[in-house]
Design brief:
- By secondary structure, the chain is mainly alpha-helical.
- It contains seven helices and no strands.
- It starts with a helix and ends in a 5-residue tail after the last helix.
Length: 199
Amino acid sequence: MKNSEGAARDGRPYNSARLDNTRRRIAQSKAVCSYLGWEARETFLNNTNIALWSWLFPITYIIHIAEEYFGGEGYSAYLLRVSGVHFSPVRFLVIQSVAVVLMIVGIKLARRFNFPILMIVIMGATVLFNATTHVLSAIREGGYGPGLATSVLIWAPLGVASLVNFRNSMSGRRYWMGIAIGLGINLIVAVVTMRGGRW
């Protein structure tokens, strides 16, 4: 009765007011669905970008390994000359292959347990520190060392971009923990390298 009186005051029959309410609800539903669809699309794009960003690391790692193996005198000969460490080419390839597999497994686990951005920060810090060691070695030796080009042209920019782009995607404590893990990985790599690939 109340709706009928309201409709009468508006100069419209009751059925017309009811129809207007229905249309308004349909319009609101469409707006909500459109918003949710946009949000879902944005989430999908963000997840896709994160996944693509993650896979840049193993791809560029393989390119980096190729330069270390084929570049100049080869990393094994370079390491023997500058540090007196015997790291055979075969052992070098085996260790690097294991590292690539571990990186891929890490990416898969990060997606499975929902920490892909932290994994990007860890890998970004890892490649940035590794690139820094290549640059410092080149400065110390006064010339090219295997892996220098990919370090300067690919890994340093990728590392910096990763750390800058995802800085505000997590808490400061979590962010610096990721960087610390990346540094720790480099220390382990340095120890293994100086032991000639032996644990």
